[in-house]
């Protein structure tokens, strides 16, 4: 394998002297790291110095580690120095140009989405004029009507309960294990705790500090009948890297629940797991018997850093690699600290899977795999789908780096979208959000409960750095290479080898003599030669959407199935017929198609089964026995 075709190692900045970070190597990095200097001043410096690989790293088989250098896969992040008058003027200029140009870009998308919806509008109008119900064509029409009736009945029940003034509960509600503490007509707000209380649960919000100084949100979904609020944290607690939880279990002697961390996708927050009432993945797993934690990436709904301010471009100098190496690691360590377990189950969607794939790679933080019992990837984003050729994405890919920053700035990516959230009525915001995302990404709501659709888009979009979007869509990142962990040249080389192997298999296994050029190709791109992971990678399970044009999950399945990742142990895989990118979270049949299987996979791979409560429905699920890795 060639060093220049692999992702560069991310240097861990010396902000937080905790956990396993100290054992990380000081490898050559192409990415900016943030360091504290005098009186809280910060300099972002590009680590251009050489690095040394210790003996442990050499034993993992990284023959090319000594020559790691800046790669084309993760281009060097800009090096912003401390603010000076000249720099401030430059940043102000970029803010002004990006406000105007990105607004025009956004308006063009909105306008295009409206124009392309005209045929559908005419079609619906024709059905209405001919006294027919257009919605009857929807896949789950009858179930949608039933759920809408159920929600209206619950609203009436809540009104009666509130009108009594004594908090009395109907006999039907008394029979429920989880008593809602919120109800009535949905105001459609971006507040996960509110929606948790509507289904008889609650959410504790915790701030976690990453190693490069970002304060990110971790949400704990819990059953109020099992927890009580502890005393306020002391001043000593507040100085800790991981602040103590304010919730305590009522019965400390009772069996614990297995912890599960959920991680969201691009331009979303973890609220995406909580907006489907009882059929939300987070609430469903919690009621099934898991200890559910929801991780949010840096900035998200509220950009916060230990020292940097949101108007400082150094606060936005990060991309997918930092989200995996720093954010995921901090979230995992925080959950393990609070639960006391050595491992947790990890469930990710879309970009959450991408940052995990990167973080677990042997050049990044492979030791993180020892803390994960299983990695469940929903709509795994390792390879690009055909949608990357969309006209808008091609336009962004064609922009040179300097022009990209003129159009989209050096701070957050189109922050106007988030600022409009508080100004536009929530139902209108939800409709606009669906129209724009549906147009850009080709999604439909055919399998969703349309009565909840406006709520789904209250947790999207969120703040993300322009550098992250440049990596996803620009001309030197994911859109160019089509993969999160391999360059375009490597992908093409692997394809050539796979095609030749397929020809030999079709010929009955007859192997012809190879030329020297072909032998070099096999040595460079043969099975296992370009493996991303070593023996520390955790078991994986994949749920791939058949009609997902945004990412190519089936290609990833082929990679795992044809021996290119000999160390990856695939516990479960499924290609879900008719599913699109977001259906794994929001489809009305997602419980049967996805959630039940996720529940079972989490339990069958859980190492401490005797110490934990058996999740509902998992009584007969046997423990998973790993197969011997391929040689």
TrEMBL record:
Span list, region Disordered: 42-62
Keyword presence, Transmembrane helix: yes
Residue ranges constituting the Partial AB-hydrolase lipase domain according to the UniProt record: 192-276
Domain of life of the source: Eukaryota
Basic and acidic residues composition bias: residue spans: 43-57
Keywords: Hydrolase, Membrane, Transmembrane, Transmembrane helix
Any GO BP: lipid metabolic process
Bilayer-crossing regions: 97-122
Molecular function, one GO term: hydrolase activity
InterPro entries tied to this protein: AB_hydrolase_fold, AB_hydrolase_lipase
Protein name as it appears in the record: AB-hydrolase-associated lipase region
Organism annotation: Cordyceps fumosorosea (strain ARSEF 2679)
Organism lineage string: Eukaryota, Fungi, Dikarya, Ascomycota, Pezizomycotina
């Amino acid at each position: 394998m060639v060093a220049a075709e692999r992702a560069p190692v991310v240097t861990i900045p010396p902000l937080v002297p905790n956990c396993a970070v100290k054992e990380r190597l000081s490898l050559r990095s192409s990415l900016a790291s943030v360091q504290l200097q005098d009186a809280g001043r910060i300099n972002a410096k590009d680590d251009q110095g050489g690095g040394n690989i210790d003996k442990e790293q050499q034993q993992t088989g990284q023959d090319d580690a000594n020559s790691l250098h800046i790669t084309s896969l993760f281009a060097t992040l800009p090096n912003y120095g401390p603010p000076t008058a000249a720099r401030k003027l430059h940043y102000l200029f970029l803010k002004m140009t990006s406000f105007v140009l990105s607004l025009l870009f956004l308006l063009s998308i909105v306008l295009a989405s409206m124009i392309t919806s005209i045929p559908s509008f005419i079609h619906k109008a024709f059905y209405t004029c001919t006294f027919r119900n257009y919605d009857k064509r929807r896949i789950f029409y009858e179930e949608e009507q039933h759920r809408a009736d159920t929600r209206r009945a619950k609203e009436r029940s809540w009104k009666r309960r509130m009108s009594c003034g004594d908090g009395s509960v109907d006999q039907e509600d008394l029979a429920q294990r989880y008593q809602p503490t919120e109800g009535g007509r949905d105001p459609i707000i971006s507040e996960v705790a509110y929606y948790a209380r509507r289904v008889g649960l609650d959410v504790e919000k915790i701030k976690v500090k990453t190693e490069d100084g970002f304060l990110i949100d971790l949400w704990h979904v819990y059953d109020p009948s099992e927890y009580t609020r502890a005393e306020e944290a002391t001043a000593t607690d507040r100085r800790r890297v991981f602040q103590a939880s304010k919730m305590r279990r009522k019965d400390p002697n009772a069996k614990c629940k297995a912890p599960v961390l959920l991680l969201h996708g691009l331009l979303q927050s973890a609220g995406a797991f909580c907006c489907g009432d009882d059929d939300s993945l987070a609430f469903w797993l919690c009621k099934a018997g898991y200890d559910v934690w929801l991780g949010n990436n840096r900035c998200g709904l509220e950009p916060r850093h230990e020292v940097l301010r949101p108007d400082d471009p150094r606060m936005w100098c990060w991309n997918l690699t930092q989200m995996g190496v720093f954010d995921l690691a901090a979230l995992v360590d925080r959950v393990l600290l609070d639960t006391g377990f050595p491992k947790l189950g990890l469930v990710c969607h879309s970009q959450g899977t991408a940052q995990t794939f990167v973080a677990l790679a042997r050049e990044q933080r492979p030791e993180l795999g020892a803390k994960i019992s299983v990695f469940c990837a929903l709509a795994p984003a390792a390879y690009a789908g055909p949608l990357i050729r969309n006209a808008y994405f091609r336009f962004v890919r064609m922009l040179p780096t300097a022009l990209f920053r003129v159009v989209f700035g050096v701070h957050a990516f189109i922050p106007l979208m988030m600022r409009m959230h508080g100004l536009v009525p929530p139902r209108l915001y939800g409709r606009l959000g669906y129209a724009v995302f549906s147009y850009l990404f080709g999604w439909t709501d055919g399998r969703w409960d349309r009565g909840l659709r406006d709520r789904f888009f209250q947790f999207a979009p969120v703040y993300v750095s322009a550098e992250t979007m440049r990596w996803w869509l620009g001309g030197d990142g994911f859109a160019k290479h089509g993969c999160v962990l391999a360059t375009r040249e490597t992908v093409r080389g692997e394809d050539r080898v796979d095609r030749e192997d397929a020809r030999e298999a079709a010929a009955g296994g007859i192997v012809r003599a190879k030329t020297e050029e072909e032998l070099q190709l096999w040595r460079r791109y043969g099975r296992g030669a370009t493996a991303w992971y070593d023996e520390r990678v955790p078991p994986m399970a994949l749920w791939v959407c058949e009609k997902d044009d945004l990412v190519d999950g089936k290609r990833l399945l082929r990679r795992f199935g044809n021996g290119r990742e000999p160390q990856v142990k695939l516990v479960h895989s499924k290609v879900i017929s008719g599913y699109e990118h977001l259906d794994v979270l929001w489809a009305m049949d997602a419980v049967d198609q996805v959630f039940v299987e996720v529940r079972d996979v989490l339990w069958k791979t859980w190492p401490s089964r005797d110490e934990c409560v058996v999740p509902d429905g998992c009584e007969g699920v046997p423990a998973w026995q790993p197969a011997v890795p391929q040689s």
